[in-house]
Amino acid sequence: MSLIPESGDTEDVGGGGGARRSGPPPPGLYFIATPIGAARDITLRALDLLRDGDVLVAEDTRSLRRLMEIHGVPLAGRRVLAYHDHNGSRARPALLAALAEGKTVVYASEAGTPLVADPGYQLSRSAIEAGHPVFAAPGPSAVLAALTVAGLPSDRFCFLGFAPPQMAARRAFLSEARSIPATLVFYESPKRIHKLLNEMVSVLGAERGAAVCRELTKRYEEVVRGSLAELSAHFAQHEVKGELVVLVDRGQRDVVSDHDLEAALKSALAGASLREAAAQVAQDLGLPRRQVYQAALAMEVKE
């Protein structure tokens, strides 16, 4: 358990203090979200951190320097260090050393929020294990932007990232996702969107509601909504470019009979406590945990 007190560098809006800055940020590792399209989507706090950070790190150093130029944030003699999937193991020691010296290290991935289908996880874990504070400066996210405009339920969602490129692995991946009781969110490339939608029709169901969001917050932003069958037919006739987020409505589970529920509980109770068995069966069958627990209690009374 981490007991490190971690506090941000701005006053809490909820505390009535307004948006005044309270001085330079304390030492630590800061993950900042960067625009996924419109440059003005950068947050004021992210700009503060880019101006005040001791060490600037980016997945793409040119993109971060360009973003700073647009917003008039000077480098002031600082370098922008590269950190991405291909050099992470080599770059981490120097960044951890900077944190150990009490410096402020600011990391930005290419677009959106670091760690969300972007580099940063191993850096975050290493910093935490070394006892350094880790902060997030939240902001743009393609996942959340797509959920906002898709017109699908957003109270519960599951982000699944990119589907595997190989067909067999992709179909197995979709089969596992089929019964998740949440809106499914995927990233996909323009080159593979046709294959993905075709296989979604086959594996997830042709009538399942969906949306494909393209180039969110950019000049040619587009959201196409419909059933998976309709989207598959649409994109079979249209070549697309740009970043894509695919969202699929939650599936409708089959009605579970009392006999099937009792059989599942008997099997689960053979190797687990009543509470553990009820939790597992509820998850497997997509039923409310309380309903399954009450059914398990009733079975015990019968016996």
Automatic annotation (TrEMBL):
Listed Gene3D superfamilies: Cobalt-precorrin-4 Transmethylase, Domain 1, Methyltransferase, Cobalt-precorrin-4 Transmethylase, Domain 2
Q: Which organism is it from?
A: Roseicitreum antarcticum
The EC number(s) given in the record are: 2.1.1.198
GO cellular component terms?
A: cytoplasm
- Which protein is depicted? Ribosomal RNA small subunit methyltransferase I
Its domain of life?
Bacteria
The UniProt entry, under InterPro entries, shows: 4pyrrol_Mease, 4pyrrol_Methylase_sf, 4pyrrole_Mease_sub1, 4pyrrole_Mease_sub2, rRNA_ssu_MeTfrase_I, RsmI_HTH
Q: Where are the transmembrane segments?
A: none
Q: Which UniProt keywords apply?
A: Cytoplasm, Methyltransferase, rRNA processing, S-adenosyl-L-methionine, Transferase
The UniProt function text for this chain reads: Catalyzes the 2'-O-methylation of the ribose of cytidine 1402 (C1402) in 16S rRNA.
